[in-house]
Amino acid sequence: MIIKYIAKCFIIIFSLLMVAYVINLTHLIFEPAERMGASSFWPVYHVTIILIFGYALWVNWMYNVTLESAWKNEWLSKIYIRTMLYVLLASVPVIFVHGLFVHAGVILMWGSDVDIELHVIKSNYWRKDFVYFAAPLFATVALFYFFPALRFFRDRPREVDLSKIDDLQFWKLSHKPDVFLKHLRKVISTEVVFDGTKVRIFDIVFILFENKVYFAILTNGEKCLIDFSKDSPEQWPLGKWFVKIKENVHINMLYVKYPVKNIKELHLENETNAVLFRDDRLVRKDLLFPGRRLEKNVKDFWII
Prior knowledge:
Blueprint: H1 2-25, H2 33-36, H3 41-68, H4 79-102, H5 104-110, H6 116-121, H7 124-146, H8 167-174, H9 177-187, E1 204-210, E2 213-218, E3 223-225, H10 232-235, E4 242-246, E5 249-252, H11 270-276, H12 295-301
Antiparallel strand pairs: 1-2, 1-5, 2-3, 4-5
Keywords: Membrane, Transmembrane, Transmembrane helix
Transmembrane segments: 9-30, 42-63, 84-110, 130-150
């Protein structure tokens, strides 16, 4: 643990030094002598280190606020909305603040006579040197997004009294499919409803295309003919739960065991699995193996 902590501190310090080096030397990275020889270089360099550490903490905090916090608003709870907010809030304020620091000398020198448009907005910095700041900034934004474990700090886990919330509220907080399934089993009869022509969507585990017709495999192991097309999931109340994992197989993700540990081999939750794979007679195990081209559908399901 101590070695890992020391290694992390070393990487952070080294990264700060290198990023500050790039930001201050810009296009003179490989010919630094002239700029580093200036008397103002080292004070500015040290200030830059402090600034970029502050920027990194800001990006970290914006990740926690936008992507790790629970949002009650349904629109804001969508992952792609959160991601866009994260990128905007993590980068735009930093660019604005750094732009002010870069042009602080010019603003102070001109005082009340400063022309913001000429001396700041249209300065050569944005055309020539800004890219050397933007690249590390957006690299940090991407790093925390794709590797959140590398963040400096995380939000404290919220203490929730589970005894005071029902399964549906818990589902909205956790987004765990098994919690939602538990709620549905309480409010909906688990006895399969099939009158020979219609079947409840809740009762369908798999949809198969065989011999040019569609069949549904139900939670009790029965197989029945259904009217299905590629547009059907969009028209069903729970349609987004059905994911195409093979050219001829859709699976109801409501019954997939969570969390998915191996994208190449799905598992059904225990109760459904016990019925469908009893004695290996009812359903083929290969139905749970997504095709290579369609593995992406399973990954995309978790960001709906």
